[in-house]
């Protein structure tokens, strides 16, 4: 069974913030169906701060029973290490940040094929914000800056046949989703608010919400 979780956004408990995504994280661990899952964090959307980002993620997922590893910026040229980390992983979590930078690194260091293979083998592939975009066919990103608020359609890996707009509850994003969805006819579109996620098991989609709000915007 192919397993993916795409997360619209939410605080993970970095310094000065609350830990808001625990229900989603628990469901991710449950999907691995292992007593002690091996968890691999990919923080390339925030490549200069992978270590600090990983410390927080590691704390969260260790508390949920996982053994946690990452791939650091200085390790990107070590293909043997990268292959070993992917091979060992039961859960692959792609973090948030700059979507364009994330996709550039995944392509440059031949990790897209590793993610595709892991997905085909039934490993849990999950991503938050930029990571959610990477998992889908397309996503709406604020990585490019414009004079007026505007989102850019970015091509992801395409494990999930959706166009996703993370943080869709923030001002201007729902309107941008409507605008770009009208020009994107080959896939359905979805807007995910912070604290919402989609759990995708093969072709079955369900909503995970940290609140009572499980109203997700779908555009066919």
Using only C-alpha atoms, the radius of gyration works out to: 16 Å
| DSSP summary, beta strand count | 12
CATH superfamily: Class I glutamine amidotransferase (GATase) domain
Class derived from helix and strand content? alpha/beta
Under CATH, the topology can be stated as Rossmann fold
Mean pLDDT: 95
At CATH level 2, the architecture is 3-Layer(aba) Sandwich
The total of helices stands at: 7
User: Termini, distance in Å?
Assistant: 25 Å
- Indicate the proportion of strand residues: 25-35%
How many domains in all?
Answer: 1
- For this structure, the quaternary state is single chain
What about the largest sheet? 7 strands, mixed
What's the level 1 CATH class?
Answer: Alpha Beta
N-to-C SSE string, H for helix and E for strand = EHEHEHEHHEHEEEHEEEE
Shape: globular
Give a nutshell description of this structure:
The chain has helices at 22-32, 50-63, 79-88, 99-108, 112-120, 130-135, 173-181, and strands at 3-7, 38-42, 67-70, 91-94, 124-128, 136-141, 152-155, 160-165, 189-191, 196-201, 204-209, 217-219.
